[in-house]
Amino acid sequence: IFRFLLTMSYYQLSVQNWFSLHRLQLLYNHSIQATFNATRIYAPASYSYHCEHVSSLQRYDALLIPSSANDLSKLWEVTFIDFQIQGFNIQEGHFAYAKDCASFFSPAILMGLVMSLILLLVLVYALHMLIHLKSLDRHYECKASPAYFAQMKDNDMGDEKEPLRSSGNESYELRNQQFSKIYI
């Protein structure tokens, strides 16, 4: 015989009654053979509780813990598969909507959140770089100006240039090599 010891409590934060499984007792020949304390098995009183595995084994997350070290419950391994319980507000012999024991943050969900955060950071960095990108045309307009040649007086030009002999065209060669300044 399995004996489930359930309690109901009212919680003001959720504004409703909740039931919880405190203890599981195994009886054989009308004597208690093993007692297990239940952990994390609770649900609103109008719901049922469902879990794929409720067990005393560590591989199934050990929701049932032996009540004492001296008890015979250490010798027992108890596992309920597709466990569902509802202690209160049972209507027409059917279970109500079930509160499941599965957590909201599985490793897959957690890795998806981490990857989304990394991708979001990359996107923000790319947008930051695009906003601060400057046009090349505008950049070169500010940095480069047309070559600047200093104005020379006509009388100075006579000293610095020498006529070249050519066939009818007038050409001059500059004697002084430093005649202009270029600013870039």
Compact overview of the structure:
The chain has three helices and ten strands. The chain is an alpha+beta fold and 184 residues long. InterPro entries: Ac45_acc_su, VAS1/VOA1_TM, VAS1_LD.
What form results from the Cα inertia axes? elongated
- H and E order: EEEEEEEEHHHEE
Q: Give the strand content.
A: 25-35%
The major sheet is characterized as: 5 strands, antiparallel
Distance, first to last CA: 97 Å
In the predicted model, the low-confidence regions spanning at least 5 consecutive residues are none
How many separate structural domains?
Answer: 2
Fraction of residues in helix: 10-25%
Number of helices: 3
- SS-based class: alpha+beta
Q: In angstroms, what is the radius of gyration?
A: 45 Å
What is the mean predicted local confidence, pLDDT? 78
Tell how many strands the DSSP assignment holds.
10
Walkthrough of the structure:
Belongs to the vacuolar ATPase subunit S1 family. This protein is an alpha+beta fold and 184 residues long. It folds into 2 domains: 2-102, no CATH class; 103-142. The protein is built from 3 helices and 10 strands. Strands 1, 2, 3, 4 and 6 form a 5-stranded antiparallel β-sheet that branches. A hairpin with a 2-residue loop joins strand 2 and strand 3. The longest helix is centred in the middle third of the chain and has 25 residues, at 107-131. The relative contact order is 0.11. The mean pLDDT is 78.
Pick out its properties.
184 residues, alpha+beta, five-stranded antiparallel beta sheet, 3 helices, 22% helix, elongated
